Structures are given as structure tokens and as C-alpha cells.
TrEMBL record:
Protein's organism: Mucilaginibacter psychrotolerans
Protein's name according to its UniProt entry: Damage-inducible protein DinB
Gene3D superfamilies assigned: dinb family like domain
Keyword Metal-binding in record: yes
Record-stated family: Belongs to the DinB family.
Length: 172
């Protein structure tokens, strides 16, 4: 009897479950929260380098993408709760405690909304925030990548302020 070998390429194999992706994202959110918490309050809302936004503005964007993104994926309503103005440092959240509370609220939203995403929805195409059309999984990966990018900016800000940032690998 001849041995038959069925060839499967590694691109044909699923390598991560929806639950594992949620855990991965939540690990990044835990680290991003540590970076946020490391900022002195006055620097959180006032310090920037080279004309970039303050870390409070970047954190509000991360909060908004996660909240609005998951709301949109699950309900079709791409609005953020709490509603935030990413670009106006004087609007809405005015303290570190409020920013951390909003962060924590959105972490709960993520845990609550994620299980409501039907399995087939990940491969559907939608226009996130009415701006860019992509598959849901690609939008989620963008939300995670955006957070990593802004957290890295926060890490640079902390170093510029003489503060040792949390280790980039410390996601748990």
C-alpha cells in the first residue's frame, strides 16, 4: 500500500481563535493602561514632542476606536461610549482618573460585545466609522495596530520625561 501525502500549506491553516485574539487585544490594552497610568497628570494632558498630540489625546483615540469599533461591528452604530473628542484636549475628559475610568469602561465593553460577534461576521466587509471599507477582522487588526503605535509614542514621551515606561512585553 502506497503512502499518500496530502499537501497543505501553512496559509491554509487557521492559527488563532476569536477568543485568543480577544485575549491578545486585552493584553495590549493592559499594557497601554500601564503606560497611561505611568504619566504624571500634568504631563498627560500637556506634554508632546514635535507637534504630536498629547498622550491623553492618543489614549482617547484608542478608547474611541475600541468602543466605537466594537459597537459598530456588533450593532452597526459606530459611535463611542463615552463620546470623546480625540483632538480637543479641553473637551470631555479632564483628569487622569476620568481617563483611566473611561479606559476601564471600554475594557468591559470589549469583553461584553466581543462574544456577540457572529463567527461569519469576521469575514464580512463593512465601512468602519463610515470611512474605510474592510473586512471586520482587518478592521480589528487595525484597531490593535493603532493602539500599539500610539502606546509606543507614549513610551517615547515617558522616556523623554525621564520616566521608565512599562516593559513592552509586560502585557499581563
Amino acid at each position: 500500500m502506497e503512502n499518500q501525502v496530502t499537501e497543505t500549506t501553512n496559509t491554509d491553516v487557521a492559527v488563532i481563535t476569536a477568543g485568543a485574539l480577544l485575549n491578545h487585544w486585552q493584553g495590549h490594552r493592559k499594557l497601554s493602561r500601564k503606560v497611561l497610568n505611568a504619566f504624571p497628570e500634568n504631563e498627560l494632558f500637556g506634554f508632546s514632542i514635535g507637534g504630536m498630540r498629547t498622550y491623553s489625546q492618543l489614549a482617547k483615540e484608542m478608547i474611541g476606536l475600541t468602543s466605537g469599533g466594537l459597537n459598530g461591528i456588533v450593532t452597526g452604530d459606530w459611535s463611542t461610549t463615552p463620546e470623546l473628542d480625540y483632538f480637543n484636549p479641553e473637551a470631555d475628559i479632564k483628569s487622569k482618573a476620568e481617563l483611566l475610568a473611561a479606559w476601564d469602561e471600554v475594557t468591559i465593553q470589549l469583553d461584553t460585545l466581543w462574544p456577540q460577534i457572529p463567527a461569519g461576521r469576521f469575514n464580512e466587509v463593512d465601512k468602519a466609522f463610515g470611512q474605510f471599507e474592510n473586512t471586520i477582522i482587518d478592521s480589528i487588526l487595525y484597531f490593535i495596530d493603532n493602539e500599539i503605535h500610539h502606546r509606543a509614542q507614549g513610551t517615547v514621551y515617558l522616556r523623554a520625561l525621564g520616566i521608565e515606561p512599562p516593559a513592552f512585553w509586560d502585557r499581563w
